[in-house]
Amino acid sequence: MFEFMKLKDIEKYSFYQAKYQYYRKFNLYGFAAFCCVFIILFVTEISDNITITVSSLLIRCLVLIPYAALAFLDRYYKDYRILSIISHVLAHTIILTSMDLVILNQSPATAPINFIFMGYLLLIASFCAPPGYSVISQWLLLIEILIASKLMHIDNFYLLFIYAFQVVLMLNIISIFVTKLFHDNYLKTRKLDYITFHDQLTDVYNRNMIRRLVNKEERFNFTKNPLCILLLDIDYFKKVNDTFGHDQGDVILKRVAKTITETLSVKSYCLRWGGEEFLVLLEGCELNEGVEKAEEIRKKIEGIHDLVCPITISIGVSLYAGEEYLHSVKNSDQALYKAKAGGRNQVQTYKHQPFTDSITSYK
Length: 363
Hints:
Radius of gyration: 30 Å
Order of helices and strands: HHHHHHHHEHHEEHEHEE
Oligomer: single chain
Strand content: 5-15%
Helix content: 55-70%
Number of helices: 12
Structural class: alpha+beta
Strand order of the largest sheet: 2-3-1-4-5-6
Mean pLDDT: 87
């Protein structure tokens, strides 16, 4: 029933990171509203005693410290493990400062309302956090109520504690079921995402994936490092289909895709670009390194001997120069055309020159 509890390592991190990203604005704006209201309520404590008034304002302003840390790390760090903890620290900071204000202003009658009010803070924090973090944080509320009872007299304390106990149990259940509902939706989204962005035959990305890799100007997003573009085509593939049938052609496509992906590094993308064409993006790769990788792929595929017939591939390589992505793909396509015209089973590169472009052959 609660499959999310069985997640481990990368799957666990990916799931809870996605959960945080989904609820992060609710978390940030919810806490921002609470902090504003919490500070504005200072006007109810203004009195003739300047010392108490100033102390009350300073105590209320303390909540800005963890909120500033939360907002800063959310903008630049974005790791759910740290941000979930800070969210709960912020909630408990508000709870503890409320307790200080009750003692400072000698108003224990407001304590029950404050603690129930703070339960909603813990609920906000629980949406972004793993349920384990939230459950521990929520039970801390009971400890804080016990501490408050030792520092001040609270009317009907036992009734308050029983009520708070029920609230904490309810918060625990909500935290778990919110995570379960998100996990169910997460699995459906991932399945749909996979169908949308993957080729069903070869399991590599399809052309839809390119929309995730380019910006509104149709330029690739990852331009801080050099980017090498490889366009690969299986030689005489139509003849293979005509001679041995499309089922054997499918076997060859899957084997070629598998060989390409096994040869690539982590910062690479392999897309099925057309019928027997594959587009490979090598991030952080200079042109000479791209040629070496292309040659490695070509030799591995040439060395496959357990298919219905020997197969080879031709590859065109170009270096991304910051233009629209289709322009660079066309450059690789020109190099690929040269490779096929030159006898196939070879690598050709497209080099940008100051006044003219050139194509170089490698084999």
